Amino acid sequence: MVGDTIAAVATPPGEGGIGIVRVSGPGARDVIKAVFFPRYGRGVDEWASHTLHLGTIIHPDDGREIDEALVAWMVGPRTFTTEDVAEFHCHGGAVPVRETLTAVLRAGARLAEPGEFSRRAFLGGRLDLAQAEAIIEVIRAKTRDGLGAALSQLEGQLSRRIDQVRADILALLAHLEAMIDFPEEDLPDMGSERLRVTVVHIGKQIGDLVERSRTGRVLREGWRTVIAGRPNVGKSSLMNALLDEQRAIVTEIPGTTRDAIEEYIDLGGIPLRIVDTAGIRETEDIVERIGVEKTREYLEKADLVLVVLDGSDGLNQEDEALLRSLVDRPAVVLVNKSDLAIRRLDDVRLRSLVGKMPILSVSAKEGWGLQELSDLIRSMVYGQDGSTVAGREGEGPVTRDGGRSALVTQARHREALERADFHLRQALEAVDVGASPDFLTIDLKAAWEALGEITGDTVGEDILDKIFSSFCIGK
Ligand code: GDP
Ligand code: ZN
């Protein structure tokens, strides 16, 4: 597909070392000819592909000098968009970048729409849709693990898995359709038990991906975490200790409305979205600050509750009421002030109250037990033995080294997977009641299509528009 020639600024606004204007399309060569005066004579027609050239950017109308720059020249199809690409690396200030873009547009390119470079990469077959979306995920990653998940998607881990399940579905469909079309032929009939096994197998693979989407969401959006406990047990101190522990404060996700009392921290690669840290740090308690009702609301919405108790004090009614309200919730009990010699907390009583909830001894003051807490949260995200969502069949899990596994991070993918999962359940039901193959094929086809939406095989223009328009200009 040959489109027109598009151009956009690829670097963020503001001052920087360099600013890049990206050009893609059949006219990229002519744009260079019109706006670039090479230092060492030879023109673009003599340049090898994938080389850098120093020179001056000039305005095509009057030859006025704009900036000294490097031009990267890449001939399609071995480029991001699969088209000819020129990148002008000028000085990273508002004026040189803008003037360079103006010159390029004057030379015949048009301003790219948001995500148009990525869209061309998709249309050119360079990336599938899941991979194109992964570019945004890489850029917006909030922690190392989040980056690992996005990179693996960009490299096609998720796409390969999806393709594999779709191939299995297609093989089964072909078999079923042969059975429907030629019932009296001597086809090797697929016994109902074998049919069941095949459907179950496909369903399991999809179910596994749905499961992985839980971890993916955590990595993308952060675990909503609430620190709860009565006054003076050490909630604020714990918050501060966690803030000291984290590697870097992560910026907010663009596009989400940020609650005034939430903050992201990066604990061992897992992003936590902790409620009311700003308030807590100013010595206020979440309960004092936002009231009991609101606290209850946060507790209900939380992915994780850190219940803080004072180990140097006995359990009182307030503690017990809180613990009871959290039974069956993802919560960790932190027995704080373990640095103190006095310990009045009744462990047997505590255990009987919290059931299977993990209990950790910590000292917010000394920073004791925080590593254990971080490891525990990690195992809660990735599954107890690390196998729930971590990679199998030779793929490494997403580990501290940023390993690779097919995690599902996007809501769009999750939604498509859930639909596929639903249809596989229906198909299994059809098998179990001995329904005719026609019923089965309807659901299998629907599942196949739902999965194809993830890789972009079966999506319409409208969805493509929606996805790519959420990209920035220049991507
Ligand atoms: P909050 O009301 O639950 O937020 O509790 P704070 O964090 O404000 O702490 C209440 C008091 O307990 C303060 O005097 C802290 O210094 C003290 N404290 C908090 N954590 C620890 C701890 O681990 N060890 C000791 N010895 N004191 C602590
Ligand atoms: Zn406090």
The CATH topology name of the domain at 222-368 reads: Rossmann fold
Radius of gyration: 28 Å
Helix/strand structural class: alpha/beta
How much strand content do the residues show? Answer: 15-25%
> Biggest sheet, strands in spatial order?
3-4-5-6-2-1-7
Low-confidence stretches: 247-260, 276-284, 385-404
Average of pLDDT: 82
Helix percentage range = 40-55%
SSE run:
EEHEEEEHEHHHHHEHEEHHEHEHEHHHH
By CATH reckoning, the class of the domain at 222-368 would read Alpha Beta
Ligands (ions, cofactors included): guanosine-5'-diphosphate, zinc ion
> So what's the overall shape?
flat
Spatial gap, N to C terminus: 19 Å
What's the helix and strand layout?
Elements: E1 6-9, E2 16-24, H1 28-35, E3 36-38, E4 51-58, E5 65-74, E6 85-92, H2 94-106, E7 110-111, H3 116-123, H4 129-140, H5 144-154, H6 157-181, H7 192-221, E8 223-228, H8 235-245, E9 262-267, E10 270-275, H9 277-281, H10 286-301, E11 304-310, H11 317-325, E12 331-336, H12 347-354, E13 359-361, H13 370-382, H14 411-432, H15 437-455, H16 461-469
Parallel strand pairs: 1-7, 8-10, 8-11, 11-12, 12-13
Antiparallel strand pairs: 1-2, 2-6, 3-4, 4-5, 5-6, 9-10
Zinc ion binds at residues 235-236, 280, 285.
